[in-house]
Amino acid sequence: MKVDVYTLNGKKTSETVELPAEIFEAPVNVDLMHQAYVRQLSNARRGTHSTKGRSEVSGGGAKPFRQKGTGRARQGSNRAAQWVGGGKIHTPKPRSYEKDMPKKMRRAALRSALSAKAGEQEIVVVDELKLNEPKTKEMHAALQSLVGESTALILLPAKGENENLVARSARNLPYAKTLLASYLNVRDLLGYEKIIMPVQVIDVISEHLGK
Questions:
Q1: Nearest 10 degrees: CA dihedral of 153, 158, 163, 166?
Q2: Residue 197 gets which letter from DSSP?
Q3: What is the percent of the chain where pLDDT is above 70?
Q4: Confidence class for position 27, pLDDT limits 50, 70, 90
Q5: How far, in Å, are 53, 149, 151, 196 from residue 175 at the CA level?
Q6: CA-to-CA distance for 85 and 91, rounded, in angstroms?
Q7: pTM for this model (two decimals)
Q8: Has residue 211 got a pLDDT over 70?
Q9: What is residue 71's three-state secondary structure?
Q10: What is the DSSP code string of 112-174?
Q11: How far apart are CA 53 and CA 61, in angstroms?
Q12: What is the average per-residue pLDDT within 78-82?
């Protein structure tokens, strides 16, 4: 698949770039993408929620009132669940929400997501993504030229001084996010309308997801 290459000002250059077919023209498996998405959300949960049962709350011990003759239902402890301040029943305890998914399936899900984006022409390739200083105003103007009012995921090839400037320029923009190409994930791919990537990112993605 050939796509046009743009400058940071949104102008189309005379060059085109070939997106690897095995990554950007792979079969789109919606069920696989959903599984990867749910797995990522589950693995992000801390699972630290906790409640106290009747054996963990303070108090109790003595029988609240005598067994017979009061006309009330018999009670053995005022720390039972039906009492104010009593323990809770069948409520959450600390647990792990981690889900497993084979690496091949995770990579196939990423290829599906990238192919879906490419098929909808939602991938914007730029010749270079370079700033001289961290300026939110400049990044906003660049994104307006490239994607208009759409939300954007900006992929960076590697860590470096320039990438740091780009990240600092975009971090105050609520509709944009920067991400290293090696950290590519289904949640971010599907969470933004447009994907902006410099030409160098294609090589990083090919090395990571290529067969």
A1: 0
A2: E
A3: 100
A4: very high
A5: 44, 9, 5, 13
A6: 15
A7: 0.85
A8: no
A9: coil
A10: HHHHHHHHTT-EEEES----SS--HHHHHHHHHHHHTTS-EEEEESS-SHHHHHHHHHHTT-T
A11: 15
A12: 94
Q: Which strand (E) or helix (H) includes residue 12? A: strand 12-18
Looking at residue 41, its amino acid is L
The alpha carbons of the chain give a radius of gyration, in whole angstroms, of 27
Compute the mean pLDDT over every residue in the chain, rounded to the nearest whole number: 93
The closest alpha carbon to 93, from 46, 47, 50, belongs to 50
pLDDT bin (cut points 50, 70, 90) of residue 188 is very high
80, 125, 154 from 122: Cα distances, Å: 58, 10, 12
β-bridge mates for residue 17, sequence order: 3
Strand partners, 5: 125
The answer to whether the Cα torsion of 205, 207, 209, 211 is positive or negative is positive
Q: Which amino acid is at 201?
A: V
Paired tokens of 167: 């990240």
Token couple for 35:
């599984």
Q: Amino acid identity, residue 184?
A: L
Our CA dihedral for 16, 113, 161, 172, rounded to 10 degrees, sits at 110
Domain annotation for the chain: domains and CATH numbers: 2-29+98-209 (3.40.1370.10)
Q: How does pLDDT run across 112-162, given as a tens digit for each residue?
A: 999 999 999 999 999 988 888 899 999 999 999 999 999 999 999 988 888
3-class state of residue 196 by DSSP: strand
